[in-house]
Write a structure and sequence with these properties.
This protein is of the alpha/beta class. It is built from three helices and three strands. The protein starts with 5 loop residues before the first strand and ends in an 8-residue tail after the last helix.
Length: 75
């Protein structure tokens, strides 16, 4: 199975080899952020059109964010 778009929403601390492995499951280049989003708006901008996201314990994807992300299938 391939995802259209995978996004690492914040500083997940994934090592480079892990990101390369994940790339095999994505049609597009994986987008990796190395900071923490400061608002819900920023989170939504980052995960726009993503169907899979990776997130650390630091960033909350609440019900509002999930509802506004219709393409999202996996967290």
């Amino acid at each position: 199975m391939k995802f259209n778009r995978i996004v690492c929403v914040d500083k997940t601390k994934l090592q480079e080899w892990a990101i390369k492995e994940l790339q095999e499951f994505s049609v597009e280049e994986i987008e990796v952020y190395n900071d923490y989003p400061s608002s819900k708006k920023e989170i939504l901008n980052r995960i726009q059109e993503a169907d899979a996201v990776l997130v650390s314990w630091h960033t909350e994807l609440d019900e509002e964010i999930i509802e506004k992300s219709p393409d999202l299938k996996y967290i």
